[in-house]
Amino acid sequence: MQALKEAKPNTELKNLLRSLPEKPGIYQYFDKEGKIIYVGKAKNLKKRVGSYFTKTHQSGKLRLLVRKIADIKFVVTATEMDALLLENNLIKEYQPRYNIQLKDDKSFPWICIKNEPFPRIFSTRHPIKDGSEYFGPYASVRMMRTLLDIIKQLFPLRTCKLNLHQKNIEKEKYKVCLEYHIGNCKAPCVGKQSETDYNESIQQARSIIKGNIAHVIAELKKLMHLAAGEMDFERAQMLKEKVEILEKYKSKSTIVNPRINNIDVLSIVTEDDLAYVNYLHVVKGAIVQAHTVEIKKKLDETTAELLAFAFTDFRNRFNSTAREIILPFNPQLDFPDIKLTIPQRGDKKQLLELSERNARYYQMERRKQASLIDPDRHKKRTLNRMQKDLRMKVLPEIIECFDNSNIQGSYPVAAMVQFVNIKPNKKAYRHFNIKTVVGPDDFASMEEVILRRYGRLQKEKEKLPQLIVVDGGKGQLSSAVKSLKALGLYGKITVIGIAKKLEELYFPGDPLPLYLDKTSETLKIIQQLRDEAHRFGITHHRKRREKGTIKSQLTAVDGIGYSTAQKLLRKFKSVKRVKAVSFEQLTTVIGRAKAKVVFDHFHPQQENRKESTRRRRQT
After folding, report:
1. What's the CA gap between 98 and 301, in Å, rounded?
2. Cα angle, residue 355 at apex, residues 350 and 361 outer, rounded to 5°
3. Residue 406's pLDDT is what?
4. pLDDT score at 482
5. Which of 25-39, 136-150, 428-442, 484-498 has the highest mean pLDDT?
6. Which one is predicted more confidently, 254 or 50?
């Protein structure tokens, strides 16, 4: 731990820190070998870089990073948005050790409209700078192929690689191919289609790729009515079929109000040291881009920092020009000319919820894939996370949790549940009837059960847990510590208390509680333990209470035991009804002999009258 003390900047770094401008920009940290180890962005370079050396950092990784900084370089940018873009590009180029990385090595396809006479439209993963138009990249190959299929159905464009320069066509260098004969091409190679007519089809195809489907439909309808007016019914029918194809596609792809146009949607789901960010690009109510990435945290980055990093990457990757971004919260960043929307209701809220669902689906899919490769991965990761969060020296493979139950001191009981490798081990669950405590004293009850439980484990030489959780705050925790000290186990087993009100975690000797993030796996496991112990304890307490009630009224009858009393209660539901039923009804449940005992006990006057009548008959 000594190696992770707070680092102090040397004289050279101190001078550099003083000279940093109070402007937005990016900063680069270098180690003593001159290698980039971290790239960051800042709204104010002087404050941000200086904070690394003036603040006390909780993260061991962050303290280690600061110790390794031997040199700092910076670049001032005009805006914070420019800083984000530059940071993103430098991280991709140098891949510094301490920077977060998007786990995504895919090469996405593009749709290309080739820069040539009678342009071809096709997909490619390798754009080249030859003057051609490229649309994309497409995170969904299926969506791209759907677009290309629709264009192929609507417009008979060429697929050959012939050089259709006007001189070559005039020289009749080419012959028509099979594509012409089957109706997939109008044979511009032999002059059967003019370049003007061909380019009109290209223009409409370009509009479809850009998402302007409504505009293309309107143009086709205009041509359809014109053809019908000129009695060219065959052409009108062909145009009508094209309109139907486009309207069918549009109805499938439009998911919200078509007035929502050219916007980006981002959402984020976090999980310990991982985050999943989903991106949607919407054009006229239709999603034309959708992609999710996994980000691994390196220096305990905030959710806002992760979202901002992913946002910049998506904007670059998919060439987005959207001027409105829908987000789950405001990342407190200055994006010039971009409107940030945090919707509370309506169509935009639906889009954000859809994005969040996609992020969660991706998260579940990644978990499934990981579990197939390494079935114990989730268990190992969670145990490691718990060890780190709870400041433990060993993994908490065995955890035991205790809970007390009583009503105003009546029938005090305690329950203990055990988790092994974060799974309930129900064979090891135990109930405790409190023996030495009088009245409602949770502290003394906790002291007793901890002493009994671990005193017995020591005596029987059984395996001890690595973690003990007590349901309660400082008082219950102090009682547990007292018993562990008496047994010589304090310091050998980690013990914590969980207070229900704010889900605070207390450690022995620490007056300040630990607050874990509500999404933390560690907190979820501890809550599950606490709830399971409470359920198990309440069940036992209820049984004791019922047994106590039965014993006090029914088993007080001479000759009637607990089993007979239970039969009566199951049948008649209450002691009051047992008193009210006839002798014959009692007989059908517990037999004639026991029925007579119960009936006579609750109806002594009736029994006395019978005895008097019997004596008079004898005299």
Report:
1. 11
2. 125
3. 56
4. 92
5. 484-498
6. 50
Across 117-131, 265-279, 482-496, 552-566, least confident range: 552-566
Three-state secondary structure string covering 460-487: CCCCCCCEEEEECCHHHHHHHHHHHHHH
Q: Are residues 272 and 337 in the same domain?
A: yes
Residues 282 and 146 in one domain: no
Residue 356 falls within a domain, yes or no? yes
- pLDDT bin (cut points 50, 70, 90) of residue 139 is low
277 in the same domain as 305: yes
Angle (CA) 145-147-148 rounded to 5° is 65
The Cα angle at residue 495 between residues 491 and 497, in degrees rounded to 5: 150
| Structure tokens, 195 | 């370049």
- Of the candidates 91, 124, 110, which has an alpha carbon nearest to the alpha carbon of residue 319? 110
Query: To the nearest whole number, what is the mean pLDDT of the chain?
Result: 81
pLDDT tops 60 at residue 218? yes
- Distances, alpha carbon 172 to alpha carbons 88, 118, 443, in Å: 53, 16, 101
Of residues 391 and 93, more confidently modeled: 391
Report the number of distinct structural domains present in the chain: 5
Range of the domain at 512: 385-545
The pLDDT assigned to 2 comes to 33
Strand stretches in 422-521, DSSP E: 423-424, 430-433, 467-471, 494-499, 504-506
User: CB within 8 A of 545, min separation 6: which ones?
Assistant: 407, 410, 411
Can you give the pLDDT at residue 7? 52
Between the alpha carbon of residue 450 and those of residues 56, 487, 525, the distances in Å are 38, 10, 21
- Is 377 within a domain? no
Q: Are residues 587 and 477 in the same domain?
A: no
Helix (H, G, I), strand (E, B) or coil at 405: strand
Is 50 exceeded by the pLDDT of residue 24?
Answer: yes
Boundary-marking domain end, from 372, 397, 424: 372
Residues in the chain, how many? 619
Distance CA 385, CA 395 (A): 9
What letter does residue 286 receive in the DSSP assignment? E
Q: What are phi and psi of 277, to 5 degrees?
A: -115, 125
**Alpha-carbon radius of gyration of the chain:** 38
**Residue 460: pLDDT over 80:** yes
Q: How far apart are CA 210 and CA 202, in angstroms?
A: 12
Q: Which of 227, 253, 279 is the last residue of a domain?
A: 253
Cα gap 535→531, rounded to integer Å: 6
pLDDT, residue 424, reads: 92
Round to whole Å and give the CA distance between 183 and 160.
14
Q: How many CB atoms within 10 Å of residue 435?
A: 10
Beta-bridged to residue 420, according to DSSP, are 398, 423
**Residue 112 in 3-state DSSP?**
strand
- Whether residues 140 and 8 fall in one domain: no
Crossing angle of helices 521-553 and 562-572, in 10° steps, is 100
Q: Which two tokens stand for residue 492?
A: 């050998």
Enter the tokens of residue 523: 């907190």
Q: What is the rounded distance in angstroms from the CA atom of residue 275 to the CA atom of residue 292?
A: 10
Residue 340 to residue 266: CA distance in whole angstroms: 11
pLDDT digits (tens, 9 = 90+) for 158-176: 889 888 888 888 888 888 8
Q: What is the pLDDT of residues 327-370, one digit of tens each?
A: 998 887 777 778 888 998 888 888 888 888 888 888 887 777 76
